[in-house]
Each structure stands twice: as structure tokens, then as C-alpha cells.
Amino acid sequence: MSWFSSLKAKFAPSQEVKEEEIQKVLQSYCLPNSENLLKDRISQLNLQGQILQLTINTHPSEAEQLQQIHDELADALEKCGIQELNLHVIQQKTGQATSGGCGSQQHGEAGHSCSSKPKAEASNLPPVVDASGKAAQAETDPNNPPIQKAAPQQRDVPKHPRIQHVILVSSGKGGVGKSTTTVNLALGLQKLGLKVGVLDADIYGPSIPTMLGNAGQTPLIENEHFVPLEAYGMPVLSIGHLTGDNNTPVAWRGPKATGALMQLFNQTLWPDLDVLMIDMPPGTGDIQLTLAQRIPVSGAVIVTTPQNVALLDATKGIELFNRVQIPVLGVVENMSTHICSNCGFEEQIFGQGGGDQLAEQYNIPLLGRLPLNAKIRENADKGEPSVVANDEAADSYLQIANQLLQYIQKLPKADKDQNRIF
Predict the structure, then answer these.
(1) I want to staple 268 with a disulfide (CB 3.0 to 4.6 A). Which of 70, 150, 178, 226 is the partner?
(2) Whole-number Cα distances in Å, 55 to 11, 51, 147, 341, 369
(3) Which residue has the higher pLDDT, 329 or 12?
(4) 409 pLDDT exceeds 90?
(5) Residue 11 has pLDDT above 70, yes or no
(6) What is the pLDDT of residues 69-78, one digit of tens each?
């Protein structure tokens, strides 16, 4: 794997972009007034279409050259098909570190000059951003503190033009059957007459492809947009469809994972949908906050098991949704009871009353209870969820879907833009 490939994001760039030429520019460019190569300072690179995003490490003494670096790179990369360069700068506290010099061969290449070149005209490219914030701190008047931009609120997020409602299926912890519940509720809502899609937002543990029987398939790309895959008549997309197999780990830090999620939501050709069900990762981290601030969410469903440990984590999830103004439509108590297949004895293995307790505590409805049944797991592993296989749990899922539908119908609907032609 090349130096460029190891840094580049895993999304197809525009065909008009010349990747080899971009790599040459970045490898041979030397920082102004020094012998340091830019490639030794790049910590992250993201190429999306004709937009290149670079994160570089700099030193305080180089602050005055940041705009020059941006402008020179923008000029050189424009010849490679890059229409927009976003330069993200992280300022190091230590002094300049030595690195490989810029030889005469690099100096001689077109567009790779280390010399200063003033801009002939004003550029419409985005300015350089200093992520360290030190420059801003130095100019801050203590008597007139700068205005802090408030975090985006859910009410300010514009609606998706083709999706009426986005419903999150969430849990505070893993292993409570959240993904299984997501696919079965989606199929149940579809049986009740809604147009339903599924987005797998569990970036680090995508299981939706296996449960819906299309693992190993990859989506087509049209005009730099994903075409969702089909499963039982529903459009479906997961990060698992992009990795190509079930063995590749998604070892991404938070910003890259949330960026991938936003691409799956915004850069997918979703058809007109009544509901998009999003299978959430466990916890209350970056992805949950990104969804709350950048995706128009109509409501959330909490999946829990009756035991105290699961309830404690589910409580945190509800508290998060309350703080970011996402209504919780109800609670689903999974693995509520187990009936022995040999003798018929019923036992509450994980305790009982947990779902009722959570619903009463937060004044939200208990949508229903699901049994601990081996057939649910077996059918999900085969890619035939309970609602499709019509097993013993199918009726329970359909009853919960019917309860959920009643609350969805009470949600405010977004007016469709009559000026849109598609």
C-alpha cells in the first residue's frame, strides 16, 4: 500500500481527479523557507470527489506561511482536478523537527516550487483554519469575549427531501438485540403499508447486512452517490457493504466514523420513504451527537433487557435524547421471558419489570416485550428475520410495529418542496 493510499479515505473520488498527480504534488512540496517536506507533516487525508481535505502539523514559527502553503497547494492541485482544498492545521507546541529535505529535482517540477508565489487574484477557496486556536486566544480582549457559536439544534436541521421520518433504534449497551429489533420492526412497518428503508449506523459492528441476507454485496455509485441495496423490498445501506467482507475491521477514530455516517445518509440515492430506520451503535458518543446535530430525527426507540445493568445504560441513552430534543417514542423490552422448548416452563432469565420501570420513570410508552427464543437468533443468522420467516416471535414484532406506527402517525409531517422536480 502506497503512502497516499494509506491516508486516503475509502470513498471513490471523481473520475476527473488525477490521483497519481495529486500524490506527486503532496510528496514533493516543501514548506516555505525550510527544507521540511509537506508529506512528513500530513496526518490525515480525505479525498471526496473533487474536494481534498488535508490535516497537517505545523510549528508556531510557521504561522505566517499558512496562507501561502494553502494558496500554492491549491494552484498546484487545481491542475490535478482538485476544485476545493480544505487545509486543517494542528499547531505543535514543540520546536520544528527536522525531516527530509527538498532536493533539486523537486524544485524543478512544475507546480512544486518551494518559493513564495503571491496570488494574482482573490481566490474563492476556503481559508486556512488554525485548529490550535492559539492565534485567536492571543488577540482576545478579556473585556469583550468572542461570541461562541451555539451547537446546532435538532429543530434547525433541514428535513431530507425524500424521507418523511427518521427513527433511531438505540440502546445504552451492546448485546441487547438492537439490530435484530431494527430489521424486524422495519419489516413490520413495511407490512403495515409504509415505505421503509434501513441505514446501519453501527460503524464499528455492522450486522444489518448479515441479518438481511445481503452481506458481501456492494452498492453501485452513480454521480458520486451510493445506490442503496435491496432487501425484502427495502432500500438498505451499511458500512459493512463498503468493506467487502465480514473480516475487515473499521478502525477509525470518531471524526472519520461520523464523516462516513454523514456520507451514508446524505450521499445515498434514497427513494421516497415514509420511515428510515437507523440502527445505532451502543453508547452515547460521537455518532449519537452527530446524528442529533446534523440529521433530522423524528424520534427514537430504546431497546433494553430487564436486568439492572442494561437499564442503567438505557437510562443514559434516554437522557441524551432528551438533552438534544429528540423525542423517545417508546421502549422495547427484549429477552423478556424464556419458555423451555422441552417442558414448557416459563422463566424470566434476565429478571422482570425492567421495561415497565423505565417507561414509568420517563413517562414513555412500553411498546412491547419480546421473548428469548432461539429461532429469532437462528433466522437472523440465516438472513431471514422473524417477520420474514414467520416464526414464533413474528407476531410479537408485528404488534410492536403496530404500536410504533400509531406514534409515528402523530408526528408532524414535513411539507414537501413543490419546487423540486425529483
Answers:
(1) 226
(2) 17, 13, 26, 58, 48
(3) 329
(4) yes
(5) no
(6) 888 888 888 8
Burial (CB count within 10 angstroms: exposed 0-12, middle 13-18, buried 19+), residue 148: exposed
* Contact (Cβ atoms closer than 8 angstroms) between residue 330 and residue 404: yes
Cell numbers at residue 190, please?
A: 413495511
CA 240 to chain CA mean position, Å: 13
Contacts of 165 (CB under 8 A, 6+ apart): 274, 275, 276, 298, 299, 408, 411
Identity of the amino acid at 4: F
Let me know how many helices (H) and strands (E) the chain has, helices first. Answer: 15, 16
Q: Residue 170 carries which side chain, given as an amino acid letter?
A: S
- All three cell numbers of 381: 443468522
Largest CA distance in the chain: 85
Between CA 158 and CA 411 the distance in angstroms is: 16
Q: What is the pLDDT of residues 350-383, one digit of tens each?
A: 656 677 788 888 899 999 988 888 888 899 889 9
Res 263: pLDDT: 85
- What is the separation, in whole angstroms, between the first and last Cα of the chain? 41
Q: Which of 210, 208, 229, 207 is nearest to 218 (CA)?
A: 229
Residue with grid cell 445505532, as numbered in its chain = 280
Distance CA 60, CA 74 (A): 22
- Kind plus residue range of the DSSP H or E element containing 131: none
Neighbours of 88 (CB within 10 A): 16
389 dihedral zone (left: phi>0; alpha: psi -120 to 50; beta): alpha
CB distance 38 to 26 below 8 Å: yes
Is 90 exceeded by the pLDDT of residue 338?
A: no
In 3D, which of 393, 340, 357 has the Cα closest to residue 180?
A: 393
By C-alpha distance, which of 172, 198, 230 is closest to 354?
172
> In this structure, what C-alpha cell is assigned to residue 172?
445504552
Query: If residue 327 lies in a helix (H) or strand (E), which one and from where to where?
Result: none
Query: E strand or H helix at 275, and its extent?
Result: strand 273-279
Cα separation, 161 vs 93, in Å, equals 46
CA distances in angstroms from 134 to 59, 112, 138, 257, listed in the order given:
11, 29, 6, 27
- The answer to whether the beta carbons of residues 238 and 309 sit under 8 Å apart is no
Cell 441524551 found at: 320
DSSP state of 140: -
